Amino acid sequence: TLAYWNGSLLPLDEVSVSPLDRGFLFADGVYEVVAVYDGRIFELDAHLDRLARSLDAIRIAPGLDRAALAAVFERLAAEAPRPAATVYIQVTRGAPAQRSHAFPASAQASILAFASPLKRLGRDQQQAGFALVSAPDIRWLRCDIKSIALLPSVLAAQHAAEAGALETVMLRDGLVTECAASNVFVVKGGRVATPAADHRILDGINRRIAIRLAAEAGIPLEQRDVAEAELRAADEIWITSTTKELAPIVRLDGAAVGDGRPGPVWRRLRDAFDHLAGGPAEL
Ligand code: PLP
Fold first, then answer.
1. Please, where in the chain does CATH 3.30.470.10 lie?
2. Is the pTM of this model over 0.90?
3. Which of 39, 168, 197, 248 could form a disulfide with 160 if both were Cys (CB 3.0 to 4.6 A apart)?
4. Annotated Gene Ontology MF terms (predicted)?
């Protein structure tokens, strides 16, 4: 696998990172993941915007401008596996000479990027739908920053894996926030709701796509607080992310969602999404 590492292109397993890198010692960095469909990057501008916001929020200067960052993505996407792949990029505060918590006086940001194959959720799996489990949201209050400090998300994802579920939906103060690595939508009586994009969630790029597609289809959608009770009473639930795209949920903590099958609102948006992605996933 080809990697970008601080200005060089080299095989991923030849990248060597300093043990003093603040990404390693403090998780002091941010990241992005884009999808690549047949060599074409999906929504690159939106991901570059979000990367810039994350970097600003934790005051890292990446040392590459937007065009140079875009070129890194494009370079890795060009050789990415087909038909579908992701490109991961992370920027850390670099490797100063000494470990200390406050920002170092001088350290160049470290930038790592590489592509991986993306196994899209298959059409058969989508038709069957997926399970979701719930857990308390134990994260900090700047979930709008795409930080590489992901321990609560790691634990939530493991909770889902051990339950045989696709994702864990997280609950804070009686409200739905989001999943370990995806956003959540609920449907009741044909109306869609999703938590508003504030400090409690990451504003997902596919979340925004779903919101736009709903608007284009004339489907009413509100961005607002979503109570746990609404989640449990929903006709439909689906989740969105770069890697899971738009995935229908048919079980929540073991109970059926609606009639236990993917719903009509999800179906409409899924078809519209596949159109944007250049076609549906394989069976
Ligand atoms: N929420 C969290 C916490 C995430 O980590 C992610 C993506 O990894 C998402 C939501 C979905 O964001 P996107 O649609 O941009 O992939």
1. 2-117
2. yes
3. 168
4. D-alanine-2-oxoglutarate aminotransferase activity
CB 87 within 8 A of CB 62: no
Which CATH number applies to 2-117: 3.30.70.3040, 3.30.470.10, 3.40.50.300, 3.40.50.880?
3.30.470.10
Over residues 258-274, the pLDDT tens digits come to: 999 999 999 999 999 99
**Pocket of ligand 1 contains residue 240 by CB under 6 Å:** yes
Q: What is the ipTM of this complex?
A: 0.99
CATH class of the domain at 123-276: alpha beta
Q: Which of 182, 207, 242, 269 to mutate to test the pocket of ligand 1 (most atoms within 8 A of CB)?
A: 182
